Amino acid sequence: MIRTKIENLIRKFVSKETSFSVVYPSRKEYGDYSVFLPLKEAKIVQEKIERERPHFLEKTEIVPPGFLNFYLKKDFLIKTLKKILKEKERFGSQRSKNTVLIDYSSPNIAKSFGIGHLRSTIIGQALYNIYKFLGWRCIGINHLGDWGTQFGKLIYQIKRKKISLKSLTIDKMEKLYVQFHKEAKENPEIEEKARWWFKKLEQGDKEAKKIWRVCKKASLKEFDRIYRLLGVKFDYILGESFYKDKTKEVVEELKKKKIVHQSQGALIVEFPDKQLPPAMILKSDGSTTYFVRDLAAIKYRLKRWNPDLFIYEVGADQTLYFKQLFRVVELLKWKGKKRFVHIAHGLIRSKEGKFSTREGKTIHLEEVLEEAIRRARKIIEKSETSKNLSEREKIKICKVVGIGGIKYQDLSSYHTKDIIFDWNKILTLKGNSGPYLQYTYARSRSVLKKAKTIRKNFKTLSLCNFEIKPEEMEILRTIYKFPEVVEDAGYNFSPNLICEFAFKLAQRYNLFYELYPIIEAENSKIRDFRLALSAAVSQILKNSLSLLGIEVLEKM
After folding, report:
1. Is 464 a residue whose pLDDT tops 50?
2. CA torsion angle 171 172 175 181 (round to 10)
3. I want to staple 400 with a disulfide (CB 3.0 to 4.6 A). Which of 49, 315, 353, 551 is the partner?
4. What is the domain extent for residue 57?
5. Do 120 and 239 belong together in one domain?
């Protein structure tokens, strides 16, 4: 990649102590790349680079107090255009020998798939797509919340209220869960009864296990429907219950390495530096915690897949928990050179505040997705192009636009930020939105279809034969960055960088589209160039949206 080449070039000519970063300038007049160095050192570096100027550089310049700017050659940008048209969906992809394990989505059994689960699901899938594009071996796991005290609460409610298992639906389970918490405020002793039922479940009680299986089956049926709507897939679905028979070995290892001790009947980890609060491994009644189940999961994953990188895409409210978990992994000496990363996403909020299952205020994700599809239908019906669409095409477009809009709103923000759910921002055809990018892709594809034939031989794309307009140059200076943007998105765990890039590209293409004729250009060479530019833009937009898990449409 060009940025890496520039970094390596600079590194040859600066002292080892010099720290620098090659960035994209905020203003186009400052070139394609810029680096800040002490002025005296910047002048030395420029002089040496100019002596052995690489083939891709047009020029360099220094702007006080020490900015060294780099300008790429136009013929290099044209070569990149040709490369995009040749490699298509492979443009920017890489090869790697590394393995990444991504733990994402992880809804709780017996609770509806609420909008609060959307961020982990969408961000996790995007990270999976990005790392796969970068050549990593990816292991995507849905770590279901299918074990724990909440099942004691549910079993207690089902038994106490004599609920028929045949009539048990996920809506009914959720209501029982909400009712439990309301009743527990006035009658706290039922919490102890719930813990008792969970202990029976862990001990293999037949009745408790039967109820648990029914709850799990009903939940998975709903989850599968949601995942199909979202186009989300996992390599493995392994819930907490999968590790219940693997916790004993972990507890023994914790004891052997003297990492745990008894405290008021419970088994806990107290961290040596005292910077983190203690973590509970076993409760006073001997039942397991999800902490020890997560440790068992890590041990299993290390043995089975041996990943170089563990990514946990879980809400920011679990930040302390993951600090504790990763610290215990270090104390157990499991970590080695492996990386453990918690991608702590912010909340999706309503205008009234946080959504809560316990308070019965959950917005069901399936209802949100269906509403998005309905709203997309209204927008499409108002457009001129809808007159030429069949009913089947309209149904397809509504689904792709509606769900794409929801995904894009989520991914376009840096993951730590909270999101205020706003329909006006989700489904607008203007500004930074999924539908806007999908529309731009469809527009560029429409141009190519109208042209009927596109030259397969791009030897005519020579700077010697025609003038390139400033708006066309801006597109060329954008599309070549795609591989670097994807690499940055993976390195920083930030799909929003791809969103920002795609939005800028769409803006620049739409400006070019409004200013200049394409098919009716003044001569065939300019026409072919502009068609090639449209083909490259459509390809890069498609590649970008594909990494985000968003479909594109040939017409809207």
Report:
1. no
2. -130
3. 551
4. 2-72
5. yes
